[in-house]
From TrEMBL:
UniProt key word Calcium: no
Identification of the protein by name: Olfactory receptor 1A1-like
Role: Odorant receptor.
Example of a GO MF term: olfactory receptor activity
InterPro entries: GPCR_Rhodpsn, GPCR_Rhodpsn_7TM, Olfact_rcpt
Domain G-protein coupled receptors family 1 profile, first and last residues per copy: 41-288
Locations listed in the record: Cell membrane
Residue ranges of the TM segments: 26-48, 60-79, 91-109, 130-151, 198-218, 239-258, 270-288
Length: 309
């Protein structure tokens, strides 16, 4: 392992996968390829939605917001990782570490609540189509999005402040690609009982939207089973597949991350972390455009406009 002789005793060390050099190189190359795809894919989604008037409805505004969060989410961790690998350093300042932790919790929660808002949107569209425009009014839509951002920050702030007040006396090596709360708690020499309780509370706040998503989809499926042949219902239902795929990917990886013993971090955990911070944000744009004619048309128009100007 390389030693950083310029690291102060307040800095933390991001060990990444903590394996042989070849493993580290593989993860570096992976992130190097995935990160631009995340940026371009999600930016295209936002541009396509905003430039096509037919996509100016709640479902697509929520999708654009999800893309926006995904860009922030992956930018909190991946650039730092790439830069550290290039300059051959593993150091991250204590402030940088806390900032990473704050924004990761913030963005993960915002992501989670926006996914729930999207499920709610589909549930209203399918089970109460006549009231859709009144329930999902522009104002309601802005409120849902704003609430997602507020809950994200509100859930991130206490954990960050609590972690900032801990003492770190010995080991400052984080065995992960970024400073996550569990790794930091493990390194502290203070009494962390309260922090751990708060962390579980935080995971509960994070998971609440998942229950909302399940309830929304129970409503969706019971409606579709009752009136399977209505054209409007079928069209609305066609977008549910993409959303369900994203939801399963997202919560699947989160569960893979948090329901593991905190003591040993293996290559398998590293792969799950990569799924969480890179693969999910990368796949979202593809999942939503693949079988969606409206999105494809909007993207096509976007490119034509760019070429002609
Ligand atoms: C997020 O959603 C709001 C409310 O619908 C919308 O006005 C805004 O344009 C969206 N943001 C993005 C980046 O699309």
């Amino acid at each position: 392992m390389r030693q950083d002789n310029h690291s102060s005793n307040l800095d933390f060390v991001l060990l990444g996968v903590n394996g042989p050099q070849e493993q580290e190189d593989i993860f570096f190359i992976l992130f190097l390829f995935i990160y631009p795809i995340i940026l371009i894919g999600n930016l295209l989604i936002i541009l396509a939605i905003h430039s096509d008037i037919r996509l100016h409805n709640p479902m697509y505004f929520l999708l654009a917001n999800l893309s926006c969060v995904d860009i922030f989410f992956s930018s909190v961790t991946i650039p730092k990782m790439l830069v550290n690998h290039i300059v051959g350093s593993k150091v991250i300042s204590f402030g940088g570490c806390l900032a990473q932790m704050y924004f990761m919790i913030d963005m993960a929660n915002t992501d989670s609540y926006i996914l729930a808002a999207m499920a709610y949107d589909r549930a209203v569209a399918i089970s109460r189509p006549l009231h859709y425009t009144t329930i999902m009014s522009p104002r309601a839509c802005v409120l849902l999005v704003a609430a997602s951002w507020v809950i994200g920050s509100a859930n991130a702030l206490p954990h960050t402040l609590l972690t900032a007040s801990l003492s770190f006396c010995g080991d400052r090596e984080v065995v992960n690609f970024y400073c996550d709360i569990a790794s930091l708690l493990k390194l502290s020499c203070s009494d962390i009982q309260f922090n751990v309780k708060m962390m579980y509370l935080g995971v509960a706040v994070f998971s609440m939207p998942f229950i909302g998503i399940i309830i929304s989809y129970i409503r969706v499926f019971s409606t579709v089973l009752k009136v399977p042949s209505t054209k409007g219902v079928r069209k609305a239902f066609s977008t549910c597949g993409s959303h369900l795929t994203v939801v399963s990917l997202y919560y699947g990886t989160v569960m893979g991350m948090y329901f593991r013993p905190l003591t040993n971090y293996s290559l398998k955990d590293a792969v799950v972390t990569v799924m969480y911070i890179a693969v999910t944000p990368m796949l979202n744009p593809f999942i939503y455009t693949m079988r969606n004619q409206d999105m494809k048309a909007a993207l096509g128009k976007l490119f034509k406009k760019r070429i002609s100007t």
